[in-house]
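Title: Request for sanity check on chitinase prediction

Description:
We are preparing a figure and want to confirm that the structure record we downloaded matches what your pipeline produces today. Could someone re-run it with the sequence below and paste the raw structure tokens into this thread? We only need the token string, no images.
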Amino acid sequence: MWFTNILVQCDLGNFFAGDVLSFYILHNGTAINFFAQFENQMKIFLILVLATLLISCGGTSSDIPLQRPAQQPSPQTNLVPEVCRPAEQNSQISQGGKWQLVWADEFDGKAIDGSKWQYETNCAGGGNNELQCYVEDDANAFVAEGQLHIVALNQPVTGDSGWFGNSGNVVSRDYSSARLHTLETATKPRVVGYLPGYKGLTESIKNVDLHNLTHLNLSFANPNAEGDFLLNENLLCMPGYSTEHVKGDEIREVVERAHQAGVQVLMSLAGGVIPSCSGDWHRLLQSENRPQLVSKLINLMTDLNLDGLDIDLEGILLTQIDNAGNYTPFIQALSAQLKPQGKLLTSATASYEGGMIPIDSISYFDFVNIMSYDAIGPSWGQAGIEHSTYQQAVQDVQLWLHRGLTKQQLVLGLPFYGYGFGQYRSDYAIKDLVALYGSDILQQDVMGNLCAGCDYITYNGLVTLQAKTELALKHGSGVMIWELSHDSSRTSNILATIASQVAAPKTL
């Protein structure tokens, strides 16, 4: 990967006073902090090393100027930053035809981009008995004047001594700093999984290997009649499993577990079936009410430490909102609030007339999940066909590329469930099919006789799911799963198979 900004910060004043020297550089996708306390007898040697490093970083190069920010944003900062920057013209990378810029971060927003960077938070000492805790704090890591700043502060801090912040052993340090890792979402194929609140988030997440995901969508939150989402930090309209509505603490627990695994978490809004507790989306998105709803959505995301929002307005409701001219202005207003914070804005859409997000909204989404399933179901469609064929996936991918989705935006939906007809019950999770009929059922897409009036179950077996995944990787940026609780690592284990295929090296 290529990074456009490199930062070196050093505090020579504190160093000569017998305090600390801090050196930072972006290397192999990690913002690394070389931080140590030195004895007097080592200072001369280290000064010479530092001088060599600063010169080699570009102190004498005209195209890598040494710059000093006009003002240090944090009044607590006790380090004076010096900045080494590579040439501004990234286009040089692609000159000659041998190299192509895959992605870059110009740090030109107001905040660190959460879709590209993840904080490491612990007091583990980096394996080198370092003196600082890594924290997620704007005083230690921030964007200013087109540069990423990572700053060590001489201030007491406490935290977990474990690498993943979960050892239970709390320690104290005299210094705080920041360490950032790239999430690689600009190049790493996406595996997006939905998890409904009514399935029990905290229990369901225990059965999901989060390392097989890149994004987790918690579904579905709706506003009440006044447009509020939270009351006393609990969801007002998100049906739960053991409680009427999902509790805020339940969300936070799941978010923390996901973040520890490097997974970004989004709140999915609306859904295919709007619950009775929901307010009127059509009215709440009208121009006079829209700013208040957007503000409340931003508060929801912030209060629950989420990485973004997923908009899942569907069917007749979507059509009504769009026909009234309120869908795209809502998405535009939401994007304007989310993007400066480095947060994600995504959508789920069907591919039938009246169920598709409008074309003029596409550019505001980071990616769009294509719901390529449900051609037939218990109460709709003509019996005798499959509900989610490979041919349907091909048609949906072609449709959305034609409508304007870029390859990087397109995420293809995979069903982890099936529908039954005749003597069979109406719906099945893939794990239930395996439990009832054995793993061999995953080698086919239909159980029974596929015909009108016949007894059969339609679902996606492994061959079809893997073919769809290959299609998604070739023409899109990954796959989406509805939904995670339909799989089980003890029986079907479909998620692991798909994730392994996504992670496999690709021949270009």
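Thanks, this matches our download. DSSP finds twelve helices and 27 strands in the chain.
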